[in-house]
Specification:
6-stranded mixed beta sheet; globular; 14% strand; D-Maltodextrin-Binding Protein, domain 2
Length: 430
């Protein structure tokens, strides 16, 4: 009996230790954790947690801005958690389901449908209009953040995909910017002689890229407005064959081999990325002395759809669980509209949509940036762009496509078998 009691006691102690560790990790994840945070909360202090993802530059200027905010509003203390995008989406799911999300959150547009279809997943910002400058946003921008009549989030900037090509590489091979899908294959053949891929991109970009080809080919969206998957197994099999052809004929670098350094060093001629990533792909290439060409999607002759989408780059939202909504609104307003913060952020997340932020940047020559040029190009073609369907960015759906595609690419399944697997899994998820 004594031995059993000791074992039981040890098990209880282990469970308590694991629970404490899990709690600490949730608070400590990629950010500041202070033991006095919980004390301040109990004492009624205005303690806020802020979360975001991004690169080191974003982390640095955001923390600098937060420090300035606390100097200006000494009655509010802000701690934060942050990290790179990889894995952040999954961690957000844990925080949202456990109701431990930050008071003020940078969110992806797709998360509105994932966590707040009924509009109750985030705080209704319209209730905080005495603090937040809602009049700085257009009706369309307000609508983008609204679910079931509740204003859940405000866009920071608008985002779409653009193609950046190393003009030095193209001209050295007698090439110009592609306009059609056939152009891509002709260029891939030419570049192959020197061991250069035409395009390299990430997993999500590849999926959206292939969706564009599908929509141009079949004249219908891959996902309907309600998020349901429309592709048949036969259509998916044809898309897989096209995907393999792009790899085989040197148009596309395999995902596993794609490295940004190869693009920056001229071993990959071009890439497709969000406008908000312009700094990493366009500016960085120019800093190495290369000229960059900015391009639109390739098109199939006579296509009825472009397969080209636009969305908020990222958005700011307030947790429905926050105990300090007014203070959270002050922080959100600062992040969107304060001149000091706007100047720090500049166009790193894309060209801001808030009229207040634009007014600040207009005085600082932001119209000379590559982000501004890309945004202007998108605005000129706005009528051809649809608002993105959130399932197009859903990580589980993209993973389902990649897993099935890999089965085909590595010869473990036929294109028909792989297509069946992809369609079955995606329909289970949509």
């Amino acid at each position: 009996m004594i031995k059993k009691e000791r074992v039981r006691a040890l098990l209880i102690a282990l469970i308590l230790l694991l629970a404490a560790t899990a709690t600490l990790l949730l608070h400590e994840e990629n950010g500041k954790y202070k033991n006095e945070d919980s004390v301040a909360e109990k004492q009624g202090g205005n303690e806020l947690l802020l979360s975001w993802w991004g690169n080191d530059d974003r982390h640095q200027y955001t923390m600098q801005g937060v420090d300035h905010f606390m100097e200006e509003t000494p009655d509010i203390n802000v701690t934060y958690r942050y990290g790179e995008w990889n894995g952040y989406e999954k961690r957000t799911g844990v925080w949202m389901r456990s109701k431990t999300e930050a008071d003020v959150m940078q969110i992806n547009y797709a998360w509105l449908d994932e966590y707040s279809k009924d509009g109750e997943g985030f705080y209704d910002l319209s209730e905080l209009s005495d603090v937040i400058s809602l009049d700085a946003f257009s009706e369309e921008q307000i609508e983008l953040g609204t679910r079931n009549g509740h204003l859940n989030a405000l866009p920071i900037a608008m985002n779409s995909h653009v193609f950046y090509y190393n003009r030095e590489v193209l001209e050295a091979h007698g090439l110009s910017e592609p306009k059609t899908w056939s152009d891509l294959f002709d260029m891939g053949k030419t570049l192959k002689k020197d061991g250069i891929y035409l395009l390299g991109m990430s997993k999500k970009q590849l999926f959206i890229f292939l969706c564009a080809y599908y929509e141009q080919s079949y004249g219908k969206p891959v996902f309907a407005e309600d998020g349901s998957f429309t592709a048949s197994e036969e259509e998916m099999a044809a898309l897989l064959a096209f995907y393999k052809k792009m790899i085989d004929e040197n148009v596309l670098c395999p995902i596993e081999l794609f490295d940004k350094s190869d693009y920056l060093n001229g071993r990959i001629a071009g890439t497709m990325c969000w406008i908000s990533d312009t700094g990493k792909y366009c500016d960085a290439l120019e800093e190495k002395g290369a000229r960059v060409s900015m391009c639109l999607y390739p098109m199939l002759p006579g296509a009825k759809l472009t397969g080209w989408y636009i969305k908020p780059a990222t958005m700011w939202a307030i947790s429905a669980q926050t105990k300090h909504p007014k203070e959270a609104a002050q922080l959100l307003e600062y992040l969107l509209n304060d001149p000091y913060m706007v100047s720090l952020q500049s166009t790193e997340k894309g060209v801001p949509v808030s009229s207040k932020a634009i007014a600040t940047l207009s005085e600082e020559g932001y119209s000379e940036s590559n982000e501004f040029a890309a945004t202007e190009m998108i605005n000129e073609h706005r009528a051809e762009l649809k608002i993105i369907i959130s399932n197009m960015e859903k990580e589980a759906i993209i993973d389902a496509f990649k897993e099935g595609a890999d089965e085909y690419l590595f010869g473990r399944k036929s294109e028909e078998e792989a297509a069946s697997q992809i369609c079955t899994k995606i329909r289970q998820l949509d």
